[in-house]
Amino acid sequence: MAKSHLILAALAAAAVSGKNFVSTELSSEQTPGFDSAVLTSAAGNQYRVLAPQNKAAEKELAVELAALKLIRPLASSTLLVPEIVGSTTDGDAPVVVLSFHQSKQIKLGAKNSESVELLAAELGRVHSLSVIEAQKLEIPSYTSTELVTELVNELDKLADTGKVPGVLLSRWEKALEDIGLWRYRPAVIHGAIGIDNVGTSGDQLVMRGFGSMRVSDPAEDLAWIAGGSSEAILNACFEQYSEIRDSDENLVKRAIFYSELEIARWLVYCIENEDSRAAEAAQADLDNLAEDAQRSDLPSLEATSFIGLNTEQPDS
Q1: Coil, helix or strand for 8?
Q2: Structural domain ending residue among the three candidates 51, 66, 99
Q3: Is 106 a domain residue?
């Protein structure tokens, strides 16, 4: 049974002494797997309390706390990230209170690309974090070989649903067989970049939801931008990214691969959760993508070269 906002407020008060919370608002829709609420203090500051509902969420919370320790030094005049304010327990389960910043959604299709370019630049800074330090904090780590194996298995499961057009399955299978495409330098990535976890507050980027942080392919974090931006804005974003961090020459192509795959993932998620309206919309998007693939209107996913980068050379 989900915890009420009053119970969450009481847990937050136990976790953070001296704070006078005057209002609470449930926010569990943005934090699946958690009972969650946004609390406002008498001073006008806002906080988010997170109480995991199961063991999987507890593991995610552990990653989030480790990730926040790693990423906190990146907080700046251009980037707002949560700060760990306090913690307590509810029985055997951990409860954590984080600072919270309200933000406006980033519109990928907008003509003004400043916020999207800011996101790309800040992701370049995140991807420049020390892989070694992340591994010391026990943040999950995947090599290119492990990631491709996982993607191949996922593609098999997507094929079994019978919902994914064959032309897309063939396109993605061919990409996964292209050795040169998957030669990249693993980086610390956010792992769940999307509308719920990034936004803007004035001239600053707000980034939250670090429970999926891992060492993996940096292109995963750029998939959201690749899936919703025009070619001109996409190029501008990757220029901003490249000014912060050197990347392999196939980064954009893998980002496009992940953005396409995400539509199929979302379709399966909607079906499993019996959301027929969302599933119909996702199926339509997937069918439109298949039509573009049939007409050869989609960008090539073929590696620019076979050489790429050494996959076993992580950032320091």
Answers
A1: helix
A2: 99
A3: no
Residues 6+ apart with CB under 8 A from 41: 19, 20, 21, 22, 47
Sequence-distant contacts of 51-58: CB under 8 A, at least 24 apart = 51/3, 51/8, 51/11, 51/90, 51/93, 51/95, 52/93, 52/94, 53/2, 57/33, 58/93, 58/94
Q: What mean pLDDT is predicted for residues 67-96?
A: 95
Mean pLDDT over the full length of the chain: 92
**E strand map for 30-155:** 34-41, 46-52, 79-80, 84-90, 93-99
pLDDT band at 316 (very low <50, low <70, confident <90, very high): low
- End-to-end alpha carbon distance in the chain: 44
Cα angle for residues 187, 192, 197 (degrees, 5° grid): 120
50 within a domain of the structure (yes/no) = yes
Report the range out of 3-7, 166-170, 242-246 with the highest average pLDDT: 166-170
Note down the domain range covering 135.
Answer: 114-294
State how far the Cα of 117 lies from the Cα of 225, in Å rounded to an integer. Answer: 9
Q: Which range in 187-201, 224-238, 294-308 is most confidently predicted, on average pLDDT?
A: 187-201
Of 65, 99, 133, which one is at a domain's C-terminal end?
99
Q: What is the pLDDT of residue 313?
A: 52
- The answer to the question of residue 109 being in a domain is no
Task: Count up the domains in the chain and report the number.
Answer: 2
How far apart are alpha carbons 77 and 96 in whole angstroms?
Answer: 25
| One domain for residues 129 and 223 | yes
Please indicate, yes or no, if residue 233 is contained in any of the structural domains.
yes
Same domain, residue pair 129 and 50: no
* One domain for residues 141 and 263: yes
How far is it, in rounded angstroms, from Cα 215 to Cα 185?
10
Residue 81 sits in the same domain as residue 165? no
pTM over 0.90, yes/no: yes
Q: How far from chain centre, in Å, is Cα 104?
A: 17
